[in-house]
Structure to design on (219 residues):
């Protein structure tokens, strides 16, 4: 997932302490863009989460994520059709709702999502594979998600708000789904630079505070 327009690389830094050390074995990978077949297929389950091969893919994804300045990346976005997601959630991007927590860099192998309740809400999303655009997408407001770690152990979390949204966005990539395919109102889809200056449009596509001082809507 991309930071919203205005959130540049400078104000959403990676937590350097949580990522792999740079080494000459790392590589910045090319990002696949909407229309490329790798983004539109169901990615394969990772059968050996603890293998050197899996760790190598993850290292390259982390370096790529840092280079492009995104919040999250799924392996199909770098032309690798495997069920791997890396993401982090800076405190500045999380809301005040329940379970909308910030998270340090998280590496998920074979993640699975379980919606907790049927409630959905609209909010804006951007995607490294859909450059320059943003759209307002309905997502479950509360989910439980679980995954396998690189050491083979299992983890799970309950997430709400932007946290839940980001995980749903990334895991959709593993099933060949890009956020425009989840949209129901294409009036709420546009070039980021234009959309961000259109306050009424921003507000109508956001589940957040309708206050004019709302940072995202006003930026
Ligand atoms: Zn994306």
């Amino acid at each position: 997932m991309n930071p919203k327009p205005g959130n540049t690389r400078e104000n959403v830094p990676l937590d350097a302490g949580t990522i792999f050390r740079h080494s000459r074995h790392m590589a910045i990978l090319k990002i696949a863009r909407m229309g490329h077949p790798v983004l539109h297929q169901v990615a394969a389950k990772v059968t050996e989460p603890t293998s050197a091969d899996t760790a190598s893919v993850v290292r390259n994804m982390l370096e790529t994520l840092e280079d492009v300045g995104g919040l999250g990346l799924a392996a199909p976005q770098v032309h690798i059709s495997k069920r791997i997601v890396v993401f982090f959630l800076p405190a500045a991007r999380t809301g005040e709702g329940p379970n909308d927590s910030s998270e340090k860099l998280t590496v998920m192998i074979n993640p699975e999502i379980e919606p907790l309740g049927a409630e959905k809400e609209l909010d804006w999303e951007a995607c490294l594979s859909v450059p320059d655009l943003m759209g307002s997408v309905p997502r479950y407001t509360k989910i439980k998600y679980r995954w396998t770690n690189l050491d083979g152990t299992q983890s799970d979390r309950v997430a709400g708000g932007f946290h839940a949204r980001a995980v749903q966005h990334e895991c959709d990539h593993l099933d060949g789904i890009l956020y425009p395919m989840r949209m129901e109102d294409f009036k709420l889809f546009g070039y980021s630079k234009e959309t961000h200056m259109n306050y009424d449009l921003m507000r109508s596509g956001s589940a957040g505070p309708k206050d004019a001082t709302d940072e995202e809507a006003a930026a």
